[in-house]
Amino acid sequence: MRKFMMVISIGVIGLLSCQKSVQLDSPTSLKTKAKANLASVGITYYIDPSGNDDSTGMSTTTAWRTLAKINASVFGPGDRILFKSGGVWNDTLHMKNSGTAEAPIIIDKYGGDVRPIINGGGKRNGSNALYLNKVSYFEVNNLELTNTIPSGTSCAATGIRVIGGSSAGTAISNVSIRNCYVHDVNGAIDGQTNYNKSSGGIILDGKIYGALVQNCHVANCSVEGIRTTGDRAMAARSKDIIIDNNLIEYIYGDGIVMSGVTGGSKITHNTVYKACMNTGSENYAGIWTIGSLNTLVAYNEVYGMTGGGANDGVAFDADGYDTNSVTDGDIFEYNYSHDNNGGFMLFMNQSKNIKVRYNVSVNDIGTTRLKKLFLIEKTTYDSREIYNNVFYIKNPTASLFNVMNGVSSGKPYATFSNNIFYTTSTISSLSTQADNGLKFNNNCLFPSSTFTSLNWGTTVRNNNFYEDPVFVNPIGGNGLDAAKGYDVGSGSAALNAGVFISNNGGEDFAGNALPLGNPDVGAFQHAVVANAGSSLADAYVRNGTYASTNYGTTADLVIKSDATSYARKAYAKFDIAMITKPKVSSAKLKMYVAGVNTAPQRTINIYTTSTTSWLENSINWNNAPMDTVLVGKISVSGIGLQTIDVTSAINRLLTGTDRKVSFLFLNTAAASSTNDMSFSSREATANKPTLELLY
Fold first, then answer.
1. Which cell locations does it reside in (predicted)?
2. Among 386, 394, 268, which Cα is nearest to 336's?
């Protein structure tokens, strides 16, 4: 999405843009530390299907052959266990030893680009193709794993399982799983013998302080894709779990679950496709958190889900149903969900202080089951903030908000601000419960005929509007870039129509900076570029002998506190007639210091003047306006750009009819022959005065 900044400049228009970083770094430096220490710590072992377990295993020509040999061996810090590229092993791998921060144990491949394959075989209930049993400082890289249960057998199965500490025991730490392909894990599903929801692709089980699952592909697994599991009591929870940049597809149950974490955990940059493939009553979702504290869910794409149980199948879920499972402070932002049958979001009754912001949801109401956008349990927590999202609805909707039982004395509390709700179909009802705890502030609801005819019940409504948001290219599609088609056009009523929300994350869906004042409605923030026109002017004036002299054509705006005939002050004027909004969200006056005298520092006061009729070619000390209001101060010690926040001054001006703003720059310090300084004027060849307005 392009970002436009209104730059009102004396002879110049500036265009500012910014980009967001879309990839998180690893939470540990294990690999870097390992490389630095491998020369002096640890042994490298090689495993080849053509090897010999009676060999030393310490070279490619003396490689071991079987996983049983590895399972029976003891490894120490810095050891590397390398499987031959393209090799196939039909067994399970169990690791039980830990490395150190300086020398982790590493599993990887050698001799080519093709991943080694471990086929677990699903030979018993609860089997794991790779089992990491209470290991710390351990890395797994570049493996392909399956765990396919024989036909006619019903067992729980997992591709990779990490066992952490017990609830009252010591946590394991610093485990990473990178670039692995886990697939065809066909564990028992709901209704079958040995069904276990804590089984599937990659499972992190127990108390873990620091784990990374990154760049993995998990496909054709049941029950789960990637999840944490274990005791959710606060003392037993994990922390610093990062699930990043993985592809999870064709999953019977949940795509990603973050369960039982106390902080520092993130679900970022993942793609979840065709999770929730079940057709039964068991509930699943795309990405969800439970018993979670301050988890970040960001930059994910969730799409193509058709199942999920009778009530669920939503793209995202802030869960929690009892004291231990409370989810508190999680943030869902910059995600793109589309073409999901079960809706966009679920709030369970024990989720609180949840922020859902700057997401794009397209066609997330399907054609079967509840046909809802949100599923909300009744709660006593009035602390869910849903703001600056886009909800584009294509199918007939039974209820935007389906209310379920939760806390009997509660309500389905949620506050919706600055969102766009847009439908091309029908909506039968706003909510299944008219007595709700919903608040709607500054939302764009289109079309008007659909939304004004709804029974809003007890919903508290303020400053919502019903104009077409004018999307730029709302055709949908896959990938986060497709979501940018739900940006709005330059003439949209959504521009600058939002209510300011503090601690808003600082940027929009596309990475553009958010204003300090009122934002746009929707997931994308804008600014406008316009030329200020010919009425701009600047000049400095001088007192005493020079009081009637005009200096409007010089390249400098000189400011000095000095004796009579040597004192100077400067003026600059801007035309803001192109601003049709009642207020701007940000106004920055940018002045370039082109020169300073030898005094180490001087303070320049900036004022607005009520009189704006002065002309550049006739202003002088005698007729210069002094009907002033102080708007700011700057300290000048050297050459360079100075930026002054004049938002309040511009918004005060916009309440009247005058659309010119005049600034005075004055040094009020004691007289000095060395405190003079100069700004570049509009006659300068570069660095002209600029007023940037964001709205």
1. Secreted
2. 268
Element (H, E) at 634: strand 628-636
Single-letter code of the amino acid located at 459: T
d(CA 436, CA 434): 6
Cis peptide before 223 (omega within 30 of 0): yes
Give residue 695's pLDDT.
Answer: 60
The amino acid occupying position 463 is N
Partners of 132 in the β-ladder: 95, 162
CATH code reported for the domain at 532-694 = 2.60.120.230
pLDDT digits (tens, 9 = 90+) for 492-526: 999 989 999 999 999 999 999 888 778 999 999 98
| Amino acid type, 104 | P
> Who contacts 546 (Cβ-Cβ below 8 Å, separation ≥6)?
565, 621
Query: What is the residue-wise DSSP string for 232-293?
Result: -SGGG-BEEEEEES-EEEEESS-SEEEEEE-SS-EEES-EEES-----SS----SEEEEEEB
What average pLDDT score do residues 140-168 get? 97
- 577's tokens: 């007639």
Instruction: State the sign of the Cα–Cα–Cα–Cα dihedral 451, 452, 454, 457.
Output: positive
Alpha-carbon separation of residue 665 from 292, 639, 669 (angstroms) = 53, 16, 13
How far is residue 568 from each of residues 538, 553, 583, 591, 680, measured CA to CA in Å?
Answer: 14, 15, 33, 17, 15
- Cα(612)–Cα(610) distance, rounded to whole angstroms? 6
Q: State the Cα angle at 110 between 106 and 113, rounded to 5°.
A: 115
Q: Could you say which DSSP state residue 188 is in?
A: -
Domains of the chain, by residue range, sit at 315-526, 532-694
Write the single-letter amino acid at 278: N
Report how far residue 150's alpha carbon sits from residue 128's, in angstroms, rounded to the nearest whole number.
14
- What confidence category does residue 5 fall into, taking pLDDT thresholds of 50, 70 and 90? very low
pLDDT at res. 74: 98
Residue 546 in 3-state DSSP?
Answer: helix
Q: Read out DSSP for 415-480? A: EEES-EEEESS-EEEEES-SS--EEEES-EEESHHHHHTS--TT-EEES-B-S---BS-----SSG
Q: Tell which residue, 389, 391, 332, has the closest CA to residue 358.
A: 389
pTM score of the predicted model:
0.78
